[in-house]
Amino acid sequence: MQCGVGQLSGGCQKTMGLHCILILCLFSGWIVGYKQGDNVTLYVNKVGPYHNPQETYHYYTLPVCRPEKVHHKSLSLGEVLDGDRMAESLYLIRFRENVEKKTLCQLTLSEKQVDQLREAIEELYYFEFVLDDIPIWGFVGYIEESGFLPHSHKVGLWTHLDFNIEYNGNSVIFANVSVKDVKPVPLEEWVGAGVGGVGLGGGSLTVTHTYSVRWFDSPLPHARRAERLRDYSFFPKTLEIHWLSIINSLVLVVLLLGFVIIILMRVLKNDFARYNVEEESGCDDVDQGDNGWKIIHTDVFRFPPYKSLLCAVLGVGAQFLTLATGIIVMALLGMFNVHRHGAINSAAIVLYALTSCVSGYVSCSFYTQINGQHWVWNIILTSSLFSAPLFLTWSVVNSIHWWSGSTQALPATTVLLLLGAWVLVGFPLTVIGGIVGKNRAGSFQAPCRTRNISRQIPTQPWYKHTAVHMAIGGFLPFSAISVELYYIFATVWGREHYTLYGILLCVFAILLSVGACISVALTYFLLSGEDYRWWWRSVLSTGSTGLFIFVYSIFYYRNRSSMSGLVQSTEFFGYSLLTALVFSLMLGSVSFWASLAFIRYIYRSLKMD
């Protein structure tokens, strides 16, 4: 069984090819049907240190029982990206047929192989098998530290596994493995002596691997078997219900937004009344005897420097907003089942390629509106603003994985597939979106005319400097998502299955709302000091949330996780930097458009000739 109904998938792959794989593997509505005595294939997948979720190696890199010729399972793109490398095993499991202590194989281990196993056990290596799309986890061996004087250090290898499989009707519901009442084979330092009744001599150790299979009837229907896996706790459970924390954050955010909106509207109402009364009184020069944001109306729409880079930031930010919304909506619709390995990874790659047209359209359209001339270079910059850092980070991380032999290192075929997706889909869609945006771009809607000579900006107090605005504008949105951020990190950098997508949607909406309101408030304070350089300031003020997220990732690594080692650390910090960049682009885009809409509103409301 691959991903369809019973033995259907093998023939289906021959007759339908890619269409079958996409339909059967991406959606979870297919019920696997077995008859008593049918073979239920058990795949071995990967092993790795318990505390380093992204440091994984193929199961057969350890000296374990393996077939003469290893047959690998065809995997989806998401599974490959997730580090899965499933291969057929020697375990013979038949549907609803119990097996008691059946011999799997007998191995003669060299001293080097024993040392390899001992090192793996001391690093708390766990293994992952897959039975009917159900992951099965267990530890490779047993380690015990006891006493101080004398000190005891015991290392043992599990050579017998008990498979406990639950079924309902003709389908498998759940499976796990246990070593209860099993005695491990000691792997202490040995020199020419017997160990635990296991054959030893001539610099070699002989062990016999066995297994048992027990079937149990389950009342849970196949459609609800994901609940059984979600309730199982081989790995520590950290994602508990956190409604109180979410409600607390929601109340604080509502109070914050209400405070900003009410205060800002009252101040604006007074400004409108004062400025419009002065205009009606016949003041010939609004610059005389006045201060504030009105007197810079001839400069506030002066186009900023580095227009192409600004537009690229806005375009890529809009793309990630679309991508994040699409992922959350798909999750709410139940399209990501816990039994579907890497489904979110596959969806993210497909959506990233398809939404490239959004970045091209937004970037080139606005670039044309603000009188940009080099629209071709603008499209190239937009397409490479995120893809270039992504490729650089991936190259470093993948090289380290390849050097260490980890399954997280992508095969050459997968690299070519991803490169082809960007070259043949992502980049062309960016170009098409850019051309459409350039042709459909209108004129920049500015309520005020801009003078040829810019106005001198007065000296600003320290609390209106860019660094202060970035600190305020980044901290407040970060505080709104800090609670949920822990659960997201525990999912991405742990082994949890995130299921609270409704809460995630609320937190995402709160994040965008807080970012927009804070940006509007900071922009008003900037303009009230007669500083019209709001274009880049609006992007940087709320976009600095990414810096806070990266600082939090350092805190999470040191204080909330047990990750260590070069492989895991490189991947964690490399992709944490990319995550911070994504949040900076998204929130920078939101804050800019909010500030632009606010500025157009207040200057359109003034009575000016």
Automatic annotation (TrEMBL):
UniProt name for this protein: Transmembrane 9 superfamily member
Keywords: Membrane, Signal, Transmembrane, Transmembrane helix
Residues annotated as transmembrane: 243-265, 309-336, 342-363, 375-397, 409-436, 467-489, 501-527, 534-557, 577-603
Subcellular location: Cytoplasmic vesicle, Autophagosome membrane
Species the sequence originates in: Seriola dumerili (Greater amberjack)
Principal location class: membrane
GO cellular component: autophagosome membrane
Family the entry assigns: Belongs to the nonaspanin (TM9SF) (TC 9.A.2) family.
InterPro entries per the UniProt record, alphabetical: EMP70
GO biological process: protein localization to membrane
PANTHER family referenced in this protein's UniProt entry, alphabetically: TRANSMEMBRANE 9 SUPERFAMILY MEMBER 1, TRANSMEMBRANE 9 SUPERFAMILY PROTEIN
Short name of any one Pfam family annotated for the protein: EMP70
Known role: Plays an essential role in autophagy.
Domain of life: Eukaryota
Source lineage: Eukaryota, Metazoa, Chordata, Craniata, Vertebrata
Membrane-related topology note: Multi-pass membrane protein
